[in-house]
Amino acid sequence: MGPLSPARTLRLWGPRSLGVALGVFMTIGFALQLLGGPFQRRLPGPQLRQPLAPSLRPALPSCPPRQRLVFLKTHKSGSSSVLSLLHRYGDRHGLRFALPARYQFGYPRLFQASRVKGYRPQTGGTQLPFHILCHHMRFNLKEVLQVMPSDSFFFSIVRDPAALARSAFSYYKSTSSAFRKSPSLAAFLANPRAFYRPGARGDHYARNLLWFDFGLPFPPEKRAKRGNLHPPRDPDPLQLQVFPSGAGPRAQTLNPNALIHPVSTVADHRSQISSPASFDLGSSSFIQWGLAWLDSVFDLVMVAEYFDESLVLLADALCWGLDDVVGFMHNAQAGRKQDLSTFSNTGLTAEDQQLTARARAWNNLDWALYVHFNRSLWARIEKYGQHRLQTAVAELRARREALAKHCLAGGEASDPKYITDRRFRPFQFGSAKVLGYILRSGLSPQDQEECERLATPELQYKDKLDAKQFPPTVSLPLKTSRPLSP
Ligand SMILES: Nc1ncnc2c1ncn2[C@@H]1O[C@H](COP(=O)(O)OS(=O)(=O)O)[C@@H](OP(=O)(O)O)[C@H]1O
């Protein structure tokens, strides 16, 4: 990932693939994204790696911190925890956010620049620039580039589709018609087509939600025999384990070919994609194309299962201090397995293993995305240095623990029923409680301020930033009876 290198440009836009791919994708709407204007990414300045800050004091940067950021906030993937650090960073540094009028940019419709509060396209360059665009949207590059400069740092986050499905099912149980009709996630995944109708209300939450959020197109589904429309191949659970954080590079242990068919020869490729009707949700060329396109746009894609490793890489890429990326987990649902063993098959019941395999197979585009970005993450970690990364991750966790002990009553997240201060009570939605934080009493005013920032949920923080950027205008009464004195 990273700026468009000549090699990448060639790979993406080489005459052969350009001709074939454009022809096909224009027919299915991908061109909407691709024709979004020249996406000229400037090479960032030299990124000297700086040692990460060992304390709350900000590190002295040896490179200029990057402050033009586009974060694609994908759903149910740990994105609120990332949003929290962006809110805090932007707030502390007085940066301008491109904010939605409410909390999302017209989701699930594709992002439109006109949805950004205060966006004025025709002001002859007098409009103050935005620094951070980070609230929920369905990604739409063309329109994003109306708001943010093309050399902004583009990043996002993905999560294992099995964990994401568990989270989405309980959160969107009443929002997605497919989920609503289904008694349980296991029942849904046992026969998803009994419940799922593409295009039905909220059903984008029920299948390939990451792919949807990235704004990638869905090919028309091939009509197939009743009951089982081109089912994605069931992944071999032994090959598709994702190991918990800290266990070393994992990309090699994943076998994407279990779902992404091996890249075909050029001749195969051409014959395969020459007709849109030949696309299906498991088509290798279709998936590869989408992934290559994402690689050309996004500088970093974090992985929820390796959240802390991702944070260290983020801090490094942005030339931020470690303390800029330390924060608490937000939007966690109570009573659900939060431990990372969920992502490995070890310790899972046979039933859980089956559910995991089915969820990954049903969400095959997301699984392909996940495998791809998991692999990129670990390639990046290799470059960064395993040992160096482990040291930084340990430092980050120690800082988080110290902050939790210092800021939080009980040193951890709380059931929302005990959170009486509305500023800290997270929005409750779905069938499980969403956990939040209660601040310890007796904090010094300075610590109180920092701890409040850490504990504030995303909606309240967005409101706070909104009020700061758009202070209510005080209308002074017009005193027309008295002449204005010079
Ligand atoms: N740091 C970190 N690492 C791993 N997982 C994390 C992290 N932070 C949040 N989470 C889990 O992400 C789920 C919430 O995701 P989002 O914040 O993206 O949800 S939302 O779309 O904004 O509603 C939610 O998952 P569930 O608890 O399974 O529902 C959170 O627990």
UniProtKB/TrEMBL annotation:
Kindly list the biological process annotations in GO that this record carries. glycolipid biosynthetic process; glycoprotein biosynthetic process
* Compartment(s) of residence: Golgi apparatus, Golgi stack membrane
Supply the InterPro entries for this chain: Gal-3-0_sulfotransfrase (IPR009729), P-loop_NTPase (IPR027417)
GO CC annotations, alphabetized = Golgi cisterna membrane
Instruction: From the UniProt record, give the pathway where this protein acts.
Output: Protein modification; carbohydrate sulfation
Q: Name one Pfam family in it.
A: Gal-3-0_sulfotr
Transmembrane stretches, start-end: 20-39
The reply to whether Transmembrane helix figures as a keyword in the UniProt entry is: yes
| Classification via Gene3D superfamilies | P-loop containing nucleotide triphosphate hydrolases
Q: Which GO terms describe its molecular function?
A: galactosylceramide sulfotransferase activity
Q: How does it sit in the membrane?
A: Single-pass type II membrane protein
Identify the keywords attached in UniProt to this record, alphabetized.
Glycoprotein, Golgi apparatus, Membrane, Signal-anchor, Transferase, Transmembrane, Transmembrane helix
Question: Per its Swiss-Prot or TrEMBL entry, what cofactor is needed?
Answer: Mn(2+)
Q: Does the keyword DNA-binding apply?
A: no
**What is known about what this protein does?**
Catalyzes the transfer of sulfate to beta-1,3-linked galactose residues in O-linked glycoproteins. Good substrates include asialofetuin, Gal-beta-1,3-GalNAc and Gal-beta-1,3 (GlcNAc-beta-1,6)GalNAc.
Which family is it part of? Answer: Belongs to the galactose-3-O-sulfotransferase family.
User: What name goes with this protein?
Assistant: Galactose-3-O-sulfotransferase 4
